[in-house]
Amino acid sequence: MSPRWASTTTSAVRTALIGALLIRGFDALHTAVAGCHGTDPLERLRAFGMCYRAFALDKPQYYAVMFQGALPRTPEYPVVAKHAATAFGVLVTHVPPRWAPDEFSAQTHSK
Q: DSSP state, 100?
């Protein structure tokens, strides 16, 4: 095996492994935040934040790979982006996208 061939193979394997770790991490994050609920938008936002934090504390290796640059990022593969979008889609579906500043202020100060 020539050194050039080995380098190309090693790079491809590394890229595939990083992609697999990212997919597993985003799937685990999705599972962690999908069960977060609340009766109003602010409560749901708080619950999502607590679930997100719990995920980061419970699975620091995945969190580091996903968000802290523990491994060099591979070019975004569409499948990785899809899993990331699914995980963060929970926030989008549970918290209103447009929250008037006065409504948010009233919500945060009334609790």
A: -
Percentages of the chain per state (helix, strand, coil), in multiples of 5 = 75, 0, 25
Task: Please give the distance of CA 37 from its chain centroid, rounded to a whole number.
Answer: 18
Residue 66 neighbours by CB under 8 Å, 6+ apart: 22, 25, 26, 29
The radius of gyration computed from the CA coordinates of the chain, to the nearest angstrom, equals 18
For residues 24-49, give the mean pLDDT: 88
50 SS3 class: helix
Whether this model's pTM surpasses 0.90: no
Domain ranges in the chain are 3-110
Q: Which helix (H) or strand (E) holds 40?
A: none
